[in-house]
């Protein structure tokens, strides 16, 4: 499988996700500079990594969402190619219009870095086929602006069409405001596009892939993508 | 020289922080009256922050050598060899004064400055730590300072993309007007590709890189070299503004042009900006430097030479570029969207010449600017010795259980989760041990090597006995590294004190340094970089003497790193090291009895070495299952921390006869560790300890959900946890304190 990790000025988890892809899929991704206008020939998966693109001095992801490479990402998504946006990458996908809604400041107005529990809402997607629906996975978050918000109509549509892929829950998978640490609407941690080929999520599965360091619940996401592309 | 400049008057000299005799010396050195720009330059070079004029004679006594030391103090950061062709580059630096005046930006730029020191040498930063001290929780400013400083450290490090993996946070009324922000950065480089400030070769282009120069931070270093009076906040314009985004770009661009072989010498623009960096590059290489300021990228109109020379705008570098590589270097910087400008040349004249709009604004002897900075052997007085307190004379007005509950929820010993969860401590995917343990453990690349990192000092010990306190700070850092199984290699020190012109303060400094030197020598733990921050006082009241030690240790295999959490039920818990029940200057005395009295615990460096070496060997040989160093709060606090980290309780036995129970449980004797072993290995470890003549005392067994002590009510681990976690969030939300 061929993946491409976009590098914007201010990206900072591009190495983390490249390492996860290399270890789990067996292939090192191409690192693609934001000012490029084309993805490498035959790219299967585009990853927008975490970080603070352009310092996030404007709205998070606002400038990166309009970077030269994003036209190629739009075209890739349109023809059904897989796109994964993590953290700042999720914010960029929202700003680029590839996903609906917006990520506001965390409810407690602080940057937060700790492990969270996510309930996997469905397993029939290219990103979660190696999980079971209802699985609870433990992955870290590290963000100040991950409070997902959209208008009521959009939320209703996302929920109705099953496009919410991950939710912050208790370790037992129960919805509980105490675990919805950033105040996201309906505890939404990650959402899919209509065609299920674009995923944006705030947590960092790429940081939980190594048993020697800690939990490995993040591996399933990359294993899923690999399996989906091999199918 | 320059007609339109302000005339240099005695008042202007005083405003620049120069003493009359220092100014006279400067005039004699250059043989004439200086220009205004020259006065600015010399004030920047000769202030305490840049010249170390009060501290230098004492710093020279610190041990700085070991076979693994590649670069000791005097460069941007220290460098040590960790084998396999790799080097660790690290340093700690204070940003105390700016962080008090403007907490967010002051702390943020402290992190930015120390990161720059590390990547200037060609290293990629892999971890940050910090050491923070605030005033009394009841002081009206404290809450806002904590909030601002923590947000600033996080704001910079999180965006830059380096994990902040450890540190310390504490409170004491003596920091009321002067909080401390000590930031440490650690990087990894190829040991044969370290870059230095020393310029070589005359006639080479001097290049300015990074962000544009503005008016922020002018006189920052001078401000940081004075004590505060009322209205310190009026100095806010001297605080720089940080831009972690630019710093991240600067990092990538610098490492790229280093890889491309473009760099002869490099110096970051930190304190005193362009002045200090240019002078240092020239002086270290026995060269002159001529700067043409029209070429300096500025972000404001109409900046004068004086302002450009003294600006402390952040995220800037000065380099001497390999001849013929200018175009290549420029292309790389343009790709990263950063400014690149040739602003001068090296010369063989040893003069520091600054030209602007056709005029010579400064023409000074470059070596003398550095070398002839005033050097003081300030008078110092030894602190009054405190008496050793007899443990039997100290009452315990509460039960042991109540004392533990109070200590574990006290501002100094409570969980600092509220703080470190605001720092991205996981980025780069190599954080083996997160904050909250004895030392952070960070894997190097894919391993198997890892670094252990810690910052330590116990200021109330240093206040009561600077010599023992200095020793203890080093010993505790060494012990924390040992407790995770690492071999301690070297340290960086950040010496925070009050006004050195007062003999009692100078005495604190001198004796702390002597204590540090003694411990470094005994433990083979050299100082490779550091920073001195003096004049931490407000209206004549100084901070507690705070010589922060940042320790670095090496683990050959990160999978063997040891943690403090109990591992399973039914294991034997042992106390390693000698216990005399030392309560002088203990957390028990301060928290339970409200007293800071007596002599602090003495540090027996021979016992430290013997005990620590044994613990490390036992970890390596896989005998131990958990290890925790003993420090603030003593034995029972350590046991509680081990229980809370695992949610496994312990059944503890009665203390040895002859000691009051509270002295046994809360005494702060040094050179001690709590360890656990599977019960079956008890005879084995007892035999080993006996052979090494290391005292070993059976404390009890792990198990259950509570701590039980003979004659005390049981303490639920979950209840302790709730107390431990509650103080700081409650305080910060405004309901505690």
Question: Which keywords apply here?
Answer:
heterodimer; A: 231 residues; alpha/beta; 9-stranded mixed β-sheet; two-stranded antiparallel ribbon; 5 helices; 24% strand; B: 737 residues; alpha+beta; 7-stranded mixed β-sheet; 25 helices; 28 strands; 35% helix; 22% strand; globular
Q: Can you put this structure into words, describing what you see?
A:
The complex is a heterodimer of chains A (about 230) and B (about 725). Chain A has helices at about 15-25, 70-80, 90-95, 150-160, 220-230; strands at about 5, 30-35, 45-50, 80-85, 100-105, 110-120, 135-145, 145-150, 165-170, 190, 200. Chain A is an alpha/beta fold and about 230 residues long. In chain A, the strands form two sheets. Chain A has a nine-stranded mixed sheet, with helices on both faces. In chain A, helix 1 (about 15-25) crosses helix 5 (about 220-230). The longest helix of chain B is centred in the last third of the chain and has 21 residues, at about 505-525. In chain B, the strands form five sheets. A seven-stranded mixed sheet of chain B has the order 8-10-7-11-9-12-13. In chain B, strands 23-25-22-26-24-27-28 form a seven-stranded mixed sheet, with helices on both faces. The relative contact order of chain B is 0.13. The chains are: A alpha/beta (about 230), B alpha+beta (about 725). At the A-B interface, helix 1 and strand 6 of A face helix 8 and helix 10 of B.
Q: How would you sum up the major sheet of chain A?
A: 9 strands, mixed
Provide a count of the helices of chain A: 5
Rg from alpha-carbon coordinates of chain A = 16 Å
List unreliable stretches of 5+ residues of chain B.
none
Topology:
The complex is a heterodimer of chains A (231) and B (737).
Chain A: E1 3-7, H1 14-25, E2 30-33, E3 45-48, H2 70-78, E4 82-86, H3 88-95, E5 102-104, E6 112-120, E7 136-143, E8 147-149, H4 152-160, E9 164-169, E10 188-192, E11 198-201, H5 219-230
Parallel strand pairs in A: 1-2, 1-3, 3-4, 4-11
Antiparallel strand pairs in A: 5-8, 6-7, 6-9, 9-10, 10-11
Chain B: H1 10-15, H2 20-30, H3 36-46, H4 48-51, H5 56-59, E1 69-71, E2 78-81, E3 86-94, H6 96-101, H7 103-119, E4 124-134, H8 142-160, E5 164-171, E6 180-190, E7 205-210, H9 220-223, H10 244-259, E8 263-268, H11 273-284, E9 288-292, H12 305-310, E10 316-321, H13 326-335, E11 339-347, E12 351-356, E13 359-365, H14 366-371, H15 400-408, H16 417-420, E14 431-433, E15 440-443, E16 450-456, H17 459-464, H18 466-483, E17 487-496, H19 503-523, E18 527-533, E19 537-538, E20 541-542, E21 546-555, E22 572-576, H20 587-592, H21 605-620, E23 626-629, H22 634-646, E24 650-652, H23 661-666, E25 673-677, H24 682-691, E26 696-702, E27 706-708, E28 715-716, H25 717-732
Parallel strand pairs in B: 4-5, 9-12, 17-18, 24-27
Antiparallel strand pairs in B: 1-2, 2-3, 3-6, 4-6, 7-10, 7-11, 8-10, 9-11, 12-13, 14-15, 15-16, 16-21, 17-21, 19-20, 22-25, 22-26, 23-25, 24-26, 27-28
Helix pairs in contact in B: 7-8, 7-10, 8-10, 10-13, 18-19, 18-21
């Amino acid at each position: 499988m061929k993946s491409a990790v976009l590098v914007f000025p201010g990206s900072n988890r591009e190495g983390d996700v490249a390492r996860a892809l290399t270890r789990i899929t067996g292939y090192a991704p191409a690192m693609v500079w934001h000012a490029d206008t084309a993805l490498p020939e035959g790219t299967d998966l585009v990853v927008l990594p975490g970080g603070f693109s352009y310092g996030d001095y404007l709205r998070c992801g606002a400038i990166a969402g309009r970077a030269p490479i994003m036209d190629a990402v739009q075209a890739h998504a349109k023809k059904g190619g897989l796109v994964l946006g993590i953290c700042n990458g999720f914010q960029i996908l929202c700003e680029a219009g590839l996903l609906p809604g917006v990520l506001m400041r965390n409810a407690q107005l602080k940057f937060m870095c700790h492990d969270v529990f996510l309930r996997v809402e469905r397993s029939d997607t290219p990103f979660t086929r190696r999980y079971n629906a209802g699985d609870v996975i433990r992955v870290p978050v590290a963000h100040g602006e991950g409070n997902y918000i959209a208008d009521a109509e959009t939320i209703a549509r996302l929920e109705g069409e099953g496009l919410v892929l991950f939710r912050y829950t208790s370790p037992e998978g129960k919805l509980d405001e105490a675990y919805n640490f950033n105040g996201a609407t309906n505890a939404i941690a990650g959402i899919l596009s209509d065609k299920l080929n674009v995923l944006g999520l705030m947590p960092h599965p790429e940081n939980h892939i190594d048993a020697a360091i800690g939990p490995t619940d993040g591996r399933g996401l990359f294993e899923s993508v690999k399996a989906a592309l091999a199918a | 020289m320059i007609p339109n400049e302000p005339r240099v008057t005695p008042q202007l000299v005083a405003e620049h922080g120069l003493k009359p005799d220092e100014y006279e010396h400067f005039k004699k050195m250059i043989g004439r009256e200086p220009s205004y720009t020259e006065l600015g330059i010399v004030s920047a070079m000769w202030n305490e922050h840049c010249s170390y004029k009060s501290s230098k004679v004492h710093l020279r006594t610190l041990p700085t050598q070991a076979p693994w030391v590649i670069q000791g103090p005097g460069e941007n950061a220290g460098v040590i060899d960790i084998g396999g062709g790799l080097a660790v580059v690290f340093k700690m630096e204070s940003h105390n004064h700016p962080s008090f005046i403007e907490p967010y930006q002051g702390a943020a730029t402290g992190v930015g400055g120390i990161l720059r020191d590390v990547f200037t040498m060609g290293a990629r930063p892999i971890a940050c730590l910090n050491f923070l001290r605030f005033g009394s929780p009841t002081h009206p400013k404290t809450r806002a300072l904590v909030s601002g400083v923590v947000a600033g450290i996080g704001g910079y490090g999180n965006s830059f993309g380096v994990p902040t993996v450890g540190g310390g946070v504490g409170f004491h009324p003596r920091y009321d007007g002067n909080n401390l922000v000590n930031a440490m950065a650690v990087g990894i480089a190829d040991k044969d590709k370290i870059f230095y400030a020393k310029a070589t070769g005359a006639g080479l282009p001097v290049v300015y890189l990074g962000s544009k120069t503005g008016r922020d931070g002018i006189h920052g270093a001078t401000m940081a070299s004075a004590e505060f009076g009322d209205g310190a906040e009026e100095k806010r314009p001297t605080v720089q503004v940080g831009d972690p985004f630019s710093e991240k770009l600067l990092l990538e661009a610098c490492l790229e042009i280093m890889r491309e072989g473009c760099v002869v010498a490099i110096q970051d623009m930190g304190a005193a900006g362009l002045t200090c960096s240019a002078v240092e590059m020239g002086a270290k290489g026995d060269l002159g430097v001529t700067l043409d300021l029209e070429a300096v990228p500025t972000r404001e109109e109409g900046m004068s030479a004086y302002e450009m020379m003294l600006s402390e705008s952040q995220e800037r570098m000065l380099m001497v570029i390999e001849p013929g590589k200018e175009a290549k270097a420029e292309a790389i910087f343009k790709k990263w969207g950063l400014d690149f400008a040739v602003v001068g040349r090296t010369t063989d004249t040893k003069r520091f010449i600054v030209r602007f709009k056709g005029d010579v604004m400064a023409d000074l002897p470059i070596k003398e600017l550095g070398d002839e900075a005033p050097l003081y052997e300030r008078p110092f007085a030894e602190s009054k010795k405190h008496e050793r307190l007899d443990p039997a004379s100290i009452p315990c007005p509460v039960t042991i259980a109540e004392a533990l509950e109070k200590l574990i929820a006290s501002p100094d010993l409570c969980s600092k989760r509220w703080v470190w969860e605001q720092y991205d401590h996981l980025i780069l995917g190599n954080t083996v041990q997160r904050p909250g343990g004895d030392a952070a453990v960070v894997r190097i690349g894919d391993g198997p090597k890892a670094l252990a990192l810690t910052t330590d000092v116990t200021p109330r010990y240093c206040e009561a006995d600077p010599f023992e306190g200095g020793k203890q700070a080093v010993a505790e850092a060494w012990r924390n590294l040992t407790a995770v199984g690492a071999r301690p290699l070297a340290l960086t020190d950040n010496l925070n004190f009050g006004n050195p012109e007062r003999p009692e303060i100078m005495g604190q400094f001198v004796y702390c340094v002597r204590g540090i030197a003694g411990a470094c020598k005994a433990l083979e733990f050299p100082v490779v970089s550091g920073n001195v921050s003096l004049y931490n006082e407000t209206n004549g009241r100084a901070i507690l003497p705070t010589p922060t030690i940042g320790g670095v240790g090496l683990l050959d295999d990160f999978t063997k790193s040891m943690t403090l959490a109990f591992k399973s039920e039914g294991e034997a818990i042992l106390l390693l090291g000698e216990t005399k029940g030392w309560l002088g200057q203990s957390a028990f005395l301060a928290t339970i009895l409200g007293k800071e009295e007596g002599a602090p615990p003495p540090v027996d460096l021979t016992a430290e070495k013997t005990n620590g070496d044994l613990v490390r060997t036992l970890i390596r040989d896989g005998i131990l299952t958990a290890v925790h160093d003993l420090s603030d709060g003593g034995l029972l606090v350590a046991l509680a921390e081990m229980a809370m980290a695992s949610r496994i309780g312990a059944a503890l036995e009665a203390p040895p006869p002859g000691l009051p129970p509270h002295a046994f449980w809360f005494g702060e004797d040094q050179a001690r560790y709590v360890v656990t072993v599977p019960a079956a290995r008890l005879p084995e470890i007892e035999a080993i300890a006996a052979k090494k003549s290391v005292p070993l005392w059976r404390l009890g067994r792990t198990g259950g959900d509570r701590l039980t002590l003979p004659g005390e009510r049981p303490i639920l681990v979950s209840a302790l946890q709730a107390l431990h976690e509650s103080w700081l969030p409650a305080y910060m939300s405004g309901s505690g304190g």
